[in-house]
Amino acid sequence: MVGCGAIKSTTFATITDLPHHGLSGRETSFTILNSAEALIRLIEKKAQGRDVIVIGFSLGAQILLQMISINPRLLTKAIVNSALVRPIPIPEKLLELSVKSTFPLIKRMN
Q1: Spatial CB neighbours of 91, under 8 Å, sequence gap ≥ 6
Q2: CB atoms < 10 A from the CB of 42, how many?
Q3: Confidence (pLDDT) at 108
Q4: Which of 45, 70, 72, 86 is deepest in the core (most CB within 10 A)?
Q5: What does the pLDDT look like over 50-59, one tens digit per residue?
């Protein structure tokens, strides 16, 4: 996790680099739960009584929802954007159709 530093005395901003994403490497496994717990620990350490606003987009939004479910009183505000938390059946059907139609095209290599 990379800190952006203090913007002013009442504000602290941070941008996270999730495990298995960006520069954080592959030393630990990634789960939404582990990421949410790590962010909660970071916020508890850094917030120091200040308001906490978290913005989550896509995977970050799923982590944010997990954070809220673990500790709903931690955040002052949350902005959730594009959190797909329920699988969409259409892509699964398209993938199945794609595999079925292209699999016969694969030639066995000797």
Answers
A1: none
A2: 14
A3: 55
A4: 70
A5: 889 999 988 8
CA–CA separation, 87 and 57 (whole Å): 17
Size of the chain, expressed as the number of residues it contains? 110
Cα distance between the two ends of the chain:
48
Task: Give the whole-angstrom CA distance, residue 68 versus residue 70.
Answer: 5
- Helix residue ranges, H only, 2-58: 32-46
Please tell me the distance from the alpha carbon of residue 67 to that of residue 33, in angstroms, as a whole number: 8
43's CB contacts (< 8 A; 6+ apart) are 52, 54, 74, 75
What would the mean pLDDT of 78-99 be, rounded to a whole number? 76
Q: Where are the beta strands (DSSP E) in the chain?
A: 2-8, 11-15, 53-57, 77-81
> pLDDT grade, residue 40 (50/70/90)?
very high
